[in-house]
């Protein structure tokens, strides 16, 4: 179900972990879930209101295990930004600026909501 949701929301990275392996690993390590204490790449796409330097809203936020991507991630984030920027230009909206911001950071959390 998570993969269809990610596809419908147009997440650029959709992945599924092996459930049996994850459960065995969690039990042996006493971890909260399969992504607990994993290095994750967190990506957020923001919209900024016209004329407001600091007032921005999150349009999309997702994370994925840092280990599943290699050097192609810059290209993925560039395509993501291009996709939403083209939609903003199509809308010709006076409320939002015509360009979104993509922010990428690394996080490591003890428990991750799936």
From TrEMBL:
InterPro entries: DUF4504 (IPR027850). It comes from the Eukaryota. Pfam families: DUF4504. PANTHER family: UPF0739 PROTEIN C1ORF74. This is 3484_t:CDS:1.
């Amino acid at each position: 179900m998570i993969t269809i949701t990610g596809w419908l929301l147009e997440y650029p990275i959709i992945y599924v972990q092996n459930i049996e392996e994850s459960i065995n690993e969690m039990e042996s390590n006493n971890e909260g879930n399969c992504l607990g204490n994993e290095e994750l790449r967190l990506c957020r796409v923001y919209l900024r209101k016209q004329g407001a330097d600091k007032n921005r809203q999150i349009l999309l936020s997702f994370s994925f295990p840092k280990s599943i991507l290699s050097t192609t991630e810059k290209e993925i984030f560039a395509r993501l930004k291009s996709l939403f920027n083209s939609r903003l230009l199509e809308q010709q909206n006076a409320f939002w600026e015509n360009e979104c911001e993509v922010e990428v950071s690394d996080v490591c959390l003890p428990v991750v909501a799936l």
